[in-house]
Amino acid sequence: MTHLPSIIKDFIKAANAHDSQAFIDTFAEDALVNDFARNFRGKEQIRNWSDKEMIAPKVTFEADKIIEHYGDFLITALTDGNYDKSKAPDPTYLDYFFTVKDDKIVKLIVIKNKEKSANQETILENNKQSVRQFLSCFSVGDVAGAVALFHDDATYWFPTLRETTEMPAFAEGLKWILSRLDGPIKFKIGQMVAENNKVTVQLECFARTVEGIPYNNLYHIYFEFEGAKVKLAREYNDTAHVFKTLRAGQGEPVRHR
C-alpha cells in the first residue's frame, strides 16, 4: 500500500474542507501548478487559482488510486463540486501529479484521467445507441422492445396528454399511435447530444394515418438514464399537427392509467 506524505494528506484535507489558507500553506513559495496546461507560479498565482477554481466552487477530492513513482506521487481522484459540469464527464476523475520537497508541494500537475474518461465516453455512446434502438423498435411496431429499454418504474411525459405516464400507460400510448397509422412510422434523426446521464434528440417522422392523412411531425425528446436504462423521458412535438392528423375525429385524448 502506498503511503502518502503528510503534506499531500494536508492538501486533500484542506481541499475537502474548502480552507483557503490551509490549502495554500501546503505549497512551497516558488511552487508550480499546471492545471490543464495553464501554469500558475508562486503562492500568489496559486492562491488566485485555488480560491476561484477549488475553494469557491467547493471542489471535493476523493482518492481512487495512488501510485508512487521515483519519489513523485500520482493520485487519481474522483472530483466533484459546484462548477460548470456541462462539458465534464460524470463522474469526473482527474490525475494529480505531486512533487514534494522539504515537506512542501513544489509541483502539481492536473490532467484528465484518459482511462476513466474513455469509459465515460463509452457510456455516452451506449446511451445514444439505446435512444436509436428505442426509435428503431417503435418504427417497426415492436412496443415490447421499445419499453424494455426503460426501467420498470420509469416515466414518460406525453405533450398531448400533458401528464407523466408510467410504463404500462406508456406502452398503451405507443400501441394507440401505431393503431392510428397505416404502416410503419419512419424517423429521420437530427441532432443528438449526450452529456452525463442525459440524451436529447431532435427528429422528424414520416407516416400516414389510417385515413390516408400524411403525418409529418417534428420531435424533441429528452431522456435521463439510470445505469443502462431510461429512468425518465419527456417528449415535445407539434401538438396542433397531432390533433389534425392522429387525433382527427378521435375526441379528447384517452388517458391510459
Automatic annotation (TrEMBL):
Q: Can you name this protein?
A: Ketosteroid isomerase-like protein
What does the UniProt keyword field contain?
A: Isomerase
One MF annotation (Gene Ontology) recorded for this entry: isomerase activity
Taxonomically, the superkingdom here is Bacteria
One of its Pfam families is: SnoaL_2
> Which residues does the UniProt record annotate as the domain SnoaL-like?
9-107, 131-230
